[in-house]
Amino acid sequence: MQKITQETDSAGQTQQLALAAIFNEWAARYARDPEAFADAILDADGKPVVDYGKRCAIYFIEIANDLYAKAALPPFSGEVAA
Q1: Residue 60: inside a domain, yes or no?
Q2: What are the Cα distances from residue 29, in Å, to 10, 25, 37, 41, 52?
Q3: Kindly report the CA angle at 65 between 59 and 66, in degrees rounded to 5?
Q4: 1 within some domain
Q5: Is residue 22 part of a domain?
Q6: Mean pLDDT throughout 18-24?
Q7: What is the structure's pLDDT at 27?
Q8: How do residues 23-69 score in pLDDT, each as one tens digit?
């Protein structure tokens, strides 16, 4: 796995743009339908689910793939598009 950086070089900026796009899409989806996220955060007893981070990672990958398919996500490989 490639390191995700806060560097200000082109690769670091590309990574930041990709992460920002994923988080912005997540926020937009949550704003449209917060109820859809209830099961991902809380279990039947109203307590946070144990694997919340894993669930988020899987969902963020899904969002990244959706954005990539729409050409709305910059390359995340560390390489800068020409």
Answers
A1: yes
A2: 29, 6, 9, 15, 17
A3: 90
A4: no
A5: no
A6: 91
A7: 94
A8: 999 999 999 998 888 777 778 888 888 888 888 888 999 999 999 88
Under a CB-based contact definition with an 8 Å cutoff, are residues 76 and 17 in contact? no
Instruction: Report helix, strand or coil for 4.
Output: coil
Are the C-beta atoms of 49 and 56 separated by less than 8 Å? no
Looking at the structure of the chain, the number of domains it has is: 1
Contacts of 20 (CB under 8 A, 6+ apart): none
Placement of tokens 């917060």 in the chain: 34
3-state secondary structure 61-82: HHHHHHHHHCCCCCCCCCCCCC
Q: Tell the residue number behind the tokens 């997540």, with chain if given.
A: 26
The DSSP string of 7-55 is -SSHHHHHHHHHHHHHHHHHHHHHHH-GGGGHHHHB-TTSSBPTTHHHH
Range of the domain at 60: 35-75
